[in-house]
Structures are given as C-alpha cells and as structure tokens.
What we know:
By secondary structure, the chain is α+β, with helices and mostly antiparallel strands.
Amino acid sequence: MEDDGPRMGSHLFEIDNSLSTPISPAHQLTGLSLPDDWTVTAAVQSSAAATGGCFSVGYHVEKPDGTTGFLKALDFSRALRSPDPPSALKPLVDAFEHERNLLRICRENRMSKIATAITHGTVDVPGGGLLSRVSYLIFERADRDARAHLALAAQFDAAWRLRSLHHVATALRQLHGQHIAHQDLKPSNVLVFGPTTKVADLGRASQLGITAPHDATVFAGDPQYTPIEACYGQVDPDWRRRRLGTDLYLFGSLIHFFFTQISMTSALGLALDPSHHPRNWGDSWTAVLPYVRNAFDRVALTFRR
C-alpha cells in the first residue's frame, strides 16, 4: 500500500484536478485578482496517482509583496449536472461548511501546529454563467509535505524526524483539547514550513457533539491508513476511544512511516498470514485479535532494529 504522491506546496485538501470537468469555472481561476491583493498564478498539478475527492481545485496565489499561498477552490459543477442536483450538492456544501467551521476554531484557539486558512471568499469568473461564483479558501503555502521531504533528504536525519513528530504530537494535543479528532493523519497531510511542521486537512475531522457529513463511516480517512480494528469492522461506540484513538493509531503509523517508509497498516498486512487478512477472515474481531497482536509484535521488533 502506498500513499498518494507528493504535491509540492499543496495542502492536499481532497483535491484531484485531473478528474474534474475542465470547463468548470473552478478550473478557470488562473490570472484572476482576488480581494486583499491576491492573484491566482497557476493551478496545482496533481500526480496521476493522486487520491481524494473531485470537488475542489488547487491553485498557487501570490501578493505583490511576494507573499505566497495555496488556494482551494470549490467545484460543484459535477453535482449541479447530476440527475438530482440538490441531493448531490448537500453533502459537498455540508463538508465545506464543516471544514471551514473547524478551521475557524483552530484559528481562534491559535493552534500553532495546524495549517489554518488565512482567508476565504467568493470570486466571479467571467463568462461562467450560472456557475460563475466560485468559493475558496486560502492557506499559507508549505515548502512540501513530509513524504516529499523524506524522499528529498540526502541522508538520514533523525533530528528532523523526531522534531517533526513532536510538532505533529503538539498538533494532535491542540485539536484534542478542543474535542476535535483529525481522522486523516498521513505523510501527505503533514506539511513542512521551513523549520516547522504542521498538520493540514481537516476535511475528514470530527468534533464531539457536532455531526459531520462523514461520521457514519467506520473510518473517515484515507483507506490505505485504516486502523487495523476498523479493517475488520470493529467500531467502538465511545466517541473518544473511537475518534481520538484513531488519531493515536495514525500517529503511531506516522512514526513507523518516518523511519521505514511504510505505514503500520501496510506493515501489519505483510506480517499477517493471508488467511487472517480482513478480506479472508470470516470470524469476529475478538477471534482474530491474537493473530493481529502477534503480527504487531513482530512488526515492532523489526522496527526496533
């Protein structure tokens, strides 16, 4: 199992430019001027292996003083062209509002290790017709994501890895302090800003007491990083254990990736006998747990070496 490829400077908020309708106004922002002296300079190119949704488009933006940023433009054109536009639009609008509200909470609580939005707004695209109004969010622009940084490193740098993991742990503590679970922590959502590392993408996050559009799913994040118990359909009814526990699993998986270039879920998949894999297992989570624990112990011993 592999993570999506690096996308330089992108905050990777469920963006897949290659899959959206090319004539959509959301794909025609390059060159437009925005409030606060922002100019849209170029679209962010997604890799062919990119994963994520198809309702947003990424751009680089810049100010006259040289300040750069990353813009996420909402693209609802596919939903509007569906047989039932209201039904198709509602989950997209709900997801955008949910993410925007969480970003506001992060900004108001000064979460220093969360990549938060600088501003947001709506721009009219000339000739766009009924779809001409495009809503967007602008974020500070990262140097690269952690996966790309590790791939570019000329030599093993334990100090950078440990410092970055400390920043990620701080980010989770900041989120959990406001009863927010990230739910999609992975290398491509860990962004490098010079000496600082921040966690990005709250599109799959959950907040205690607030219903999110994706709350009904067993695991809301990237399937490639699914916590092992969720692979077997095991769902803890307690919000804190389920959601915050997921973040802790994903953080452990990130630690494993930083030093081995493979996620914990992938490592467990390799360590388990094929007959014990979720797709082949016909019994309960309780019954498979001893085999999973044995696989985890073997992965941990390999990691220690």
